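Pilot study result, target chain (87 residues):
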Amino acid sequence: MLAPKAFLDAISGHASRLFNGETPLPRNEFETQFKALLQSGFSKLDLVSREEFDSQMIVLARTRARLEALEAKMAEMEAQLAGQAKE
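Predicted structure:
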């Protein structure tokens, strides 16, 4: 994974070369090169897609719900054991 400062430095260096070209680029060529520059930078970071993030959030929510159910069941069983121990 690329450190954030190194990422920004790399993007900055590439952008300055893109902006300081001897001949001005047509708008669509500039956009194409700038998008390629950003995609290259993002590919060096440890990022996930929105779909992967959303699917992991669903898994996390299910896991939390199951954990809460298990904790409630455990508390119920402990209460039953405590009640039996008093008898």
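One observation from the pilot: The radius of gyration is 27 Å. A full batch analysis is planned for the follow-on phase.
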